Amino acid sequence: MQLNTFYVDDLIKRAIQEDIHYLDVTSDYLIPEGQTGAAYFVSKAEGVLCGLEVSMRVFELLDPTFQAVLHKKDGDMLKPGDIIAELSGKTRELLKGERTALNLIQHMSGIATATREAVDLVKGTNASIVDTRKTLPGLRPLQKYAVVCGGGKNHRYNLSDAAMLKDNHIDAGGGITKAITSLRAKLGHMVKIEVETRDLEELKEALAAKADIIMLDNMSPETMKEAVRITDGKALLEASGGITKETLRAVAETGVDIISIGALTHSVKAFDISMKINLEK
Fold first, then answer.
1. Nearest to 107 by CA among 153, 71, 147, 70
2. How far from 270 is each of 107, 111, 113, 264, CA to CA, in Å?
3. Does the active-site annotation cover 99?
4. Active site residue: 72, 99, 133, 234, which one?
5. How far apart are CA 247 and CA 191, in angstroms?
6. Is the pTM of this model over 0.70?
7. Nearest 5°: phi and psi at 150?
8. Active-site residue, selected from the candidate residues 73, 166, 178, 276
9. Which whole-number Å values give the CA distances from 127 to 78, 95, 98, 153, 276, in the listed order?
10. What is the DSSP letter of 270?
11. In which element (H, E) is residue 117 found?
């Protein structure tokens, strides 16, 4: 998965403008304009690195003379004390970009790490770990990229990617069968239909209406296992809702195809990475 450079640059510029506004009163008044220096990024935790090149782009946009030696790459496993990258350039700009760069790499690495933990928990089963649209406004491409770095897969990227009938759509659209029939008459042949179901009766209705993907919403592992038996490969089954580390393996062992976890992006813990000025340079 590649990140669009125009998107990344636009995001970083807005973040820098928000943080610096027109002046960094600490760095601009303390550090001489022509002073150069060196720094390094160091890991303070164990997990998956993600967002390294994005974070380096912060410094590149602030300082055309900036250079970096990268010792790691996105997707690499980190342990405490690992040197991730060595930086050199104008000291003012290194200090100005520090927080924005760290915010991005810490958040993305946190998502990648949480995803890897989930992927490891379902190893040996049929289930794929995927994200959701529960992303922070403006950060969705970075967050979904981080899920892929952690070994997960992406659900639909936005509302244009697929038709997804959730409970409110179904209630407003006259029920599962009527909603699917109405959509089928209007959708192009490339667009799939997913239906959220709350019990086995709704599952059976969605199957009869030929849904492509069926979400099993907040069902117990026992009910999901029965749903897998009933479906018998006629549609992909997605488990969703209230799935935790403690229940993830049991859900995967029911035989579902997909497990979507909103917490991968909406409430992930930042990964601990620090930038240190290199006094030896």
1. 147
2. 5, 8, 9, 11
3. yes
4. 99
5. 32
6. yes
7. -85, 0
8. 166
9. 26, 44, 39, 11, 41
10. P
11. helix 91-121
Contact 21, 14 (CB under 8 A): no
Contact assessment for residue 38 and residue 60, using Cβ atoms and an 8 Å cutoff: no
pLDDT in tens, 230-271: 999 999 999 999 899 999 999 999 999 999 999 999 999 999
- How far is residue 253's CA from residue 250's CA, in Å, rounded to a whole number? 5
Nearest one of 167, 211, 170, 215 to 191, comparing CA atoms: 211
Instruction: Please name which of 205, 208, 206, 255 lies closest in space to residue 229, comparing C-alpha atoms.
Output: 255
Q: Residue 232: count other Cβ atoms within 10 Å of its Cβ.
A: 8
Structure-block tokens of residue 236 = 């992909």
Q: Is 166 a catalytic residue?
A: yes
Tell me the torsion sign for CA atoms 249, 254, 257, 263: negative
Helix (H), strand (E) at residue 143:
helix 140-149
Q: Is 134 a catalytic residue?
A: yes
Based on the residue annotation, tell me whether 196 is a catalytic residue of this protein.
Answer: yes
Distances (CA, A) of 81 to 38, 171, 274: 18, 53, 10
Catalytic hit among 72, 133, 134, 198: 134
9, 28, 217, 253: the catalytic one is 217
SS3 at position 68: strand
Cα end-to-end span (Å), the chain: 36
pLDDT digits (tens, 9 = 90+) for 139-190: 999 999 999 999 999 999 999 999 999 999 999 999 999 999 999 999 999 9
**Bridge partners of 128?**
258
Length of the chain (residues): 281
DSSP state of 186: T
The one catalytic residue among 82, 194, 196, 238 = 196
